[in-house]
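Researcher: Here's a chain I'd like modeled. Treat it as a single chain, no partners, no ligands.
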Amino acid sequence: MTEGVKPLRFFLGANTPRGFVSRFDQLERREDGWNRVIIKGGPGTGKSSLMKKIAAAFLADAVPGEKGRVEEIYCSSDCLSLDGVILHSVKTSIADGTAPHTIEPKYHGAYDTTLNLSECWNEDLLCQNREEIISLSKRISSLHAQSTRFLAAYGALNGDNARIALEATDVHKAAEYARHFASRELRGVPREQRSDTQPHEDVRFLSAISDRGVVVFEETARMLADRLFVVEDPWGASARILLGQVRRLALERGLDVISCYCPTDPDIRLEHLFIPALSVGLMTRNRIHPLDVEPFRVIHARRFTDMEAMRLRKQRLAFNRRGAAEMLRESTRCLSEAKALHDTLESYYIEAMDFTLAEEKMQHVLHRLRRERADV
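Model: Modeled as a single isolated chain. Structure tokens:
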């Protein structure tokens, strides 16, 4: 592998207070000649291993820079397993198209290619184990439902603190700071790095509530930005305003952005923001993800917050914080138990798979992608 060339790691699915939220719609990029490969197959059929091999093959010949970027999309319920790969050099996304992020082809052959690994298993053997497979699947679903209920309680308690903080936040002051930040940091963009058309926004999750607790891909942040501005915000009000304003101003200036939302509020709360053309990033730091990154500068939420008003709500804030932490622990415990059962479920499919045939299918896809790269 070329020294210094590593994949960018993200999530496109999140365990949230309302259940699993998928942003796999981000893989639909039919413009500019992009293509999509959808992999179908049960647990343990080699979908993740196949994508890891393809990513490794492209990274082996990659050169530093945006054109050769490889993104690895991880599973939020099993953060060692891949759910997708995005190959920018050949404008191709590859994704696990099974539940809970089900993807169906829309333009067969013209845009979508389906790779069906269920053609490689012994169905008779799976039928012999049907009772165990069904029982395990139901228990896993039950644990995920439990996890969601705990996350709903976590979201309610955490959200209450955010509302209290928002009432004590000088929104105008935070927005004005964002404008000053943009005028200072979002300038001097080389002409070739400005978007000639509509600037592009990639929506991702940089963090996930997973079977291993809260996971944050900090290395990805360090790869995207030499200057990381860390917003120290224990409550989640000021950071959302600040990052939202900087995002808007960056797009207005024709800059592509990567917007990473919070799994506990995946539609509204912008948690991290990156502007790759300028190697600038803004990240939110709090008790849930303290962040092990070296900040270029720290921005404290208290500069926009009426701290006296917050002190008057000290007891309620502390109660909510303790309760939220306990709910989060219980949620991740459920995910961990579900992962252990999922490993057992996978063993039935592994036993039934013809991995030689699956490898032939993978090599066919890889050959086609390498041919396309040679034509670029």
